[in-house]
Amino acid sequence: MEAAVQSAFEEQLRIGEEKEKENSEEPELTVTHDNQEFCNPESYMTKSVVETRLLNVADSFQRQYTVLFPDRKPLLLCPLNECGVKKFVSTTLQPSASSHCELQTWQGCAYFVANFLSLELLEPPVDLPKHLFSPTSVLRTRRATCFEFATLLCSLLLGINYDAYCVSGYAAKEMCLLDQSQFPCPLLDSDVKEEDSQQQPEDLLRGLRVHCWVLVLAGSGSIRENFFIDPLTGSSYPTDSSSFLGIESVWNDLNYHVNMQDCRNGCVGLKFDLDDTNLWEPVLHGATSRKQLILDVLNKKENRMISTEKEEQPRVFEMPRSWVTFISIHEKDLETLWPDGKKVTFYKKAKLEKFAPYLNPDGVITRLTTYKDQDCAEVAMVKEWYKHRNDSLEEREVNKLKDSTSERFKYGRRFQLLFHRITSLSTGFEQQMEFSSYARPDYLARRVWSTNEMEEFYEGRRDFLCYRQVIFQPPDQFDDSVCWKSPLRRMRVLTVVERFHRNAAKPANEDVAERVFLVSEEQFELTYHLMDHRFIPSRRILTKPLFRKFSNDCVSTFQVDLCAKPLSTQALFKILGALQDDEAKLTAEIKDSLKEIEDIVACREQEQNQVKLRKRIKEAVPTCEDEEQRVEDENSLESWKVLISKNLDAEEANRLYHSLLEEFKDKMVAQANLLQERYEKALVMGKSTNGSHSSSLLAIINGN
User: Fold this and answer.
1) Residue 246, beta-bridge partner list
2) Nearest Cα residue to 250 out of 239, 242, 237
3) Is the pLDDT of residue 639 over 80?
4) How distant is the alpha carbon of residue 13 from its chain centre?
5) pLDDT for position 451
6) Residue 18, CB-side half-sphere exposure with 13 Å CA sphere
7) Helix (H, G, I), strand (E, B) or coil at 19
8) 188 with 177: CB under 8 angstroms?
9) What is the pLDDT of residues 137-174, one digit of tens each?
10) Exposed/middle/buried for residue 474 (C-beta within 10 Å: 0-12, 13-18, 19+)
11) Is 495 within 8 Å of 472 (Cβ atoms)?
12) Within the chain, what is the greatest distance between any pair of CA atoms?
């Protein structure tokens, strides 16, 4: 059965790709926002014979329903479309598969619909709408009621083989009005979300506010449980969520079902076995359901294999085909997404702003602002997410309460920096840096630098070094030159502590676990790893012999193993000499670390003053259609060949070398960006489909 569904889905996707290509070649059929001269197809303005018969069936059903259930509201069966023509709601659904990988999952479809359209509230909020516009019209105007939101989303989900239904029912006030000001922002941390919410005033229209959402039934793809999708926000909910207060009816492109179950407790306990006529009354009895459609496909394949044909049974009245044309979504609409390229949503003590890529010169695509008070008057924290920046910046957080600024970067940027935080303290400051350790020659993973000390953490070093602490002389409190931007101005080191992992190649009694360089006291302290079945490690203190010869008096040893032979004076002298050499190297490494801190701070200041964004893929990689650019590149290449063939002096050759190198770098960056974006799209698609579309992933990576 799953194979039949997959084959039908692939065929529908192929047809969708062909139609999208046709639409891309005809500008008047693409999704536009201000096209007032759009001419609707004939099916929008007329009714076929089959549609007329269906409308008669629906009118008869509505009359019987009103007589049998006088206390219930009338059903939404045949609203007017944008041309003023009555259309049955099921025929307004147009299952449409898109070739865009962003629209291959329910999450992607829900995200697109929720952000691409603007809400038009129902007036009055307790009555069903008299009009239901087609998804194609909604995509042009970008304005829709909740019913039109759900119709577009359900059409997209049906096109990618989800068992989806539009639901007409009742919901909470906040959901109907798209008011999220009383809910915590989903991007906030869990501890912030758990704050006690204030008691809200009672809604006088609770249980009467009409709303439309989408039901997805289990059994299709990887869906294991039924769930709801609110098309206004794109969020999913369990079917017993308290936000949904009752259901009148559900419908897809094959049939319309009326709920016969009690909804006094909302949607809690509702069963969604639509084939059970005791629970759900269909408008078209005996019409083909989705399950029956799959079985018919399997039976046809089986009959074809055994070369036998059964006599077709006379069928009852079936749902006619949709009067809506194929839903085509342009790639540009997926990029801009929101009207004017931005969207602002207010949550409880928070404001969330979303921007289209390349809309802002600094590359910000999301900004979350949290406030201390309910009135959103005093800012507590501002967090921003970035994309396409040359400095690989991904996130920045400015915390007003902690007086700190944090930045997070992609892998591969300068210094292999991944995270950088600067915090102002009452006693000075603190800087934290995290690195990609295995991409650095020193394997540095993290560095913490404050007013009086610097800590460094290492991973995977061959010398087993894992930690280093450097304690500096406290700066003069009246010295204004001392700040977090100038660490090299106070290089007075007092103590250095280093710790090492266990080296299994050495005996524990000879493997140094910690060594302390007491620079001001001219001493070295060595602590060795614990021996088996021992609780105290061996220790050794060595003092530099400044004005006297080295002797055993310069060494103080605590040996745990009493049977071990004491080291000779010559061996101790070698240890002391090695420590003095290491101290000199250590001093140079500390200077390099402090210099790197200065360079990182200076680099970040320069990058912030000169923010650049990576070029779009289409701009960075010219297509074959750009004939003029191709000819220009060929002429440029010929000119380079002529220049190279000439005898050039040193200055001309150097200038030519740097010009060619710059062009080569630009092309490599463009190709790398192209591969990275294709890889990320393929990775997202692979996770959402659990590997069921491997051929599609390969096609995306290969650029097909």
Assistant:
1) 170
2) 239
3) no
4) 25
5) 81
6) 6
7) helix
8) no
9) 999 999 999 999 999 999 999 999 999 999 999 999 99
10) middle
11) no
12) 115
- DSSP conformation class of 221: T
224-266 tens-digit pLDDT: 999 999 999 999 999 999 999 999 999 999 999 999 999 989 9
β 244-251/235-238 pair status = unpaired
Q: Which residues contact 292 (CB under 8 A, 6 or more apart)?
A: none
End-to-end CA distance of the chain: 29
The DSSP secondary-structure symbol of 640 reads H
Contact 82, 44 (CB under 8 A): yes
Q: What is the DSSP string of 682-700?
A: HHHHHHHHTTTTHHHHHHH
Assign residue 403 a region (left: φ > 0; alpha: ψ between -120 and 50; beta: otherwise).
left
- Whole-number pLDDT of residue 313: 54
Q: What is the pLDDT of residues 265-286, one digit of tens each?
A: 999 999 999 989 999 999 998 7
CB 248 within 8 A of CB 193: no
Write phi, then psi, for 6 (nearest 5 degrees): -65, -45
- Both tokens of 354, joined, read 């979303």
Residues 439/414, Cβ–Cβ less than 8 Å: no
Beta bridge partners of 345: 352
* Phi, psi for residue 249 in degrees, rounded to 5: -160, 160
- Both tokens of 518, joined, read 């007491």
Closest CA to 145 of 135, 157, 156: 135
Q: Which stretches does DSSP call E strand in 436-559? A: 444-450, 453-458, 465-472, 493-500, 512-518, 523-528, 539-543, 555-558
Cα separation, 244 vs 241, in Å, equals 6
- Cα 675 from Cα 683, distance rounded (Å): 12
Contact at 8 Å (CB) between 587 and 365?
no
Measuring CA to CA, how many Å separate 262 from each of 265, 276, 279?
8, 15, 10
Q: Are 87 and 112 in contact (CB under 8 A)?
A: no
Which tokens is 396 given?
């920045």
Q: What are the boundaries of each domain within the chain?
A: 2-180+207-305, 429-609, 620-702
pTM of the model: 0.73
Contact 176, 211 (CB under 8 A): yes
